[in-house]
């Protein structure tokens, strides 16, 4: 085969492969969806916010997925109505950029979390998200100590109520200047706080961009990881063959650590059938 013809043929073939997952889902809508029960699956509500929440919860019940991430207390009654667990609560934070690394926010944050922790426990939930905030020229060691100083004031309450405060790891591409942008910094914060009620939310998408070596990080630091988020790299889209991460191996590594928490899908859907894309993501993360 001449090189010119080969390149043209290969280009057509590659385009077909890229769309294969979406095509397969469209052509096989009745494909059996059955989860094995080894992984506690969840999904971030904001990724499907264009679907009315009650309709989305009904769909999760049909799929046998019993948890949803990042829902605040104003909508917990709706979750209760459909027996869906809030696997990661929010609503106590100020913002992603204004967090625990800056003492000027400690007063408001301590008030917010002191009020929210009992609400989380009373609702029967466990996990409550938090953020480091941006550096704004601050040294990472100073910021870490500031986080320790602030978070130490709410940890006794979290321990009393059995609530786990979880700080999410972000990358610098999507969240420039965010301080908690690598596993080592987050693990060091966990060690300084010395509480089983403080963990890291390990976002696989963010950490693939920021540091890579995802499976090694999971194997080395899993005692400090209390929750996982998924998405495809690049683009934060579906976790199919269009992206560089192989999620079955990643989830297998998580499962082998004995992890009993939640793995939540947090990708931005590009498929026309959003629920088909979600089902595909769950199946790829079911080991």
Which characteristics define this entry?
287 residues; TIM Barrel; 6-stranded parallel beta sheet; 12 helices; 8 strands; 14% strand
The quaternary structure here is single chain
What's the CATH first level? Alpha Beta
Q: How would you characterize the largest beta sheet?
A: 6 strands, parallel
Annotated CATH architecture: Alpha-Beta Barrel
Contiguous low-pLDDT stretches (5 residues minimum) are 1-30
Number of helices: 12
How many strands in all? Answer: 8
Work out the radius of gyration: 20 Å
The SSE order reads HHEHEHEHEHHEHEHHEHEH
Overall structural class, as computed from helix and strand content, comes to: alpha/beta
Write down the overall mean pLDDT: 92
Distance N to C terminus: 42 Å
> Which overall shape is indicated by the principal axes computed on the Cα atoms?
globular
Specify the helix fraction band: 40-55%
Domain count: 1
Would you identify the CATH H-level superfamily? Answer: Divalent-metal-dependent TIM barrel enzymes
Can you describe this structure in just a few lines?
Helix content is 43%, strand content 14%.
How is this structure best described in words?
The protein is an alpha/beta fold and 287 residues long. The chain has one domain: TIM Barrel (Alpha-Beta Barrel). Helix content is 43%, strand content 14%.
What topology emerges from the helices and strands here?
Elements: H1 3-18, H2 20-27, E1 40-43, H3 53-63, E2 67-71, H4 76-81, E3 85-89, H5 106-122, E4 127-130, H6 140-151, H7 155-161, E5 164-168, H8 183-193, E6 198-203, H9 204-210, H10 214-221, E7 225-230, H11 247-256, E8 262-265, H12 274-284
Parallel strand pairs: 1-8, 2-3, 4-5, 5-6, 6-7, 7-8
């Amino acid at each position: 085969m001449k090189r010119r013809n080969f390149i043209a043929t290969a280009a057509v073939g590659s385009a077909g492969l890229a769309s294969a997952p979406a095509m397969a889902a469209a052509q096989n809508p009745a494909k059996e969806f059955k989860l094995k029960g080894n992984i506690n699956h969840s999904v971030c509500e904001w990724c499907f916010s264009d679907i009315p929440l009650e309709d989305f919860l009904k769909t999760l019940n049909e799929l046998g997925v019993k948890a949803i991430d990042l829902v605040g207390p104003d909508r917990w009654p709706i979750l209760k109505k459909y027996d869906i667990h809030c696997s990661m609560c929010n609503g106590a934070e100020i913002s992603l950029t204004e967090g625990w690394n800056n003492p000027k926010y400690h007063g408001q944050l301590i008030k917010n979390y002191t009020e929210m922790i009992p609400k989380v426990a009373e609702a029967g939930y466990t996990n409550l998200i938090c953020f480091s905030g941006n550096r704004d020229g601050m040294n990472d060691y100073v910021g870490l100590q500031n986080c320790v100083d602030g978070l130490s004031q709410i940890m006794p309450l979290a321990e009393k109520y059995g609530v786990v405060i979880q700080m999410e790891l972000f990358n610098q591409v999507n969240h420039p200047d965010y301080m908690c942008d690598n596993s080592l910094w987050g693990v060091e914060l966990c060690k300084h706080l010395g509480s089983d009620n403080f963990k890291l939310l390990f976002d696989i998408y963010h950490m693939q961009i920021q540091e890579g070596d995802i499976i090694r990080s999971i194997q080395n630091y899993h005692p400090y990881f209390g929750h996982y988020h998924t998405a495809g790299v690049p683009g934060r889209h579906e976790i199919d063959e269009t992206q560089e991460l192989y999620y079955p191996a990643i989830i297998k590594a998580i499962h082998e650590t004995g992890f009993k928490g939640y793995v939540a899908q947090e990708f931005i859907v590009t498929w026309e059938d959003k629920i088909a894309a979600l089902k595909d993501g769950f199946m790829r993360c079911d080991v």
